[in-house]
Write a structure and sequence with these properties.
Largest sheet: none
Number of helices: 7
Radius of gyration: 15 Å
Structural class: mainly alpha
Number of strands: 0
Strand content: under 5%
Length: about 120
């Protein structure tokens, strides 16, 4: 397996975010954190997850760890969306907090399955 560091550092996440972001833009879908923060974050998380999932699958990872890592992209917004809806944070704060939280969550997923990511 291996390749955990590449997934953790986010190289494949950003490649997915860039490539799919171009497609969304070409299709006229361009949500902003100022006007559509929920959609903007969920679309970004999907794009990053797609790139990471493809690369992890190419590297031979099983579906369970792939889904755990993808879940780490979405889990941070569970407590943050209500704060956004209550007006306690804005879209940019949502994006920053969720992105900061996703890396420890990804590390936790990797530590849970050390044998999956060790090489």
């Amino acid at each position: 397996m291996g390749g955990g560091l590449g997934a953790y550092t986010g190289q494949t996440m950003f490649a997915g975010m860039f490539a799919l972001g171009l497609l969304w833009f070409a299709a006229g879908v361009a949500p902003s954190y100022a006007h559509d923060p929920e959609l903007a974050y969920l679309l970004m998380a999907f794009d990053m997850s797609a790139g990471m999932a493809v690369w992890m699958r190419v590297r031979g990872h099983a579906w369970a760890p792939i889904l755990e890592m993808c879940g780490a992209m979405f889990v941070p917004v569970v407590p943050l969306f209500p704060l956004l809806w209550l007006g306690l944070i804005d879209g940019m704060a949502l994006m920053v907090a969720a992105n900061v939280a996703m890396f420890p969550l990804m590390l936790a997923a990797m530590l849970r399955r050390r044998d999956e990511y060790a090489h």
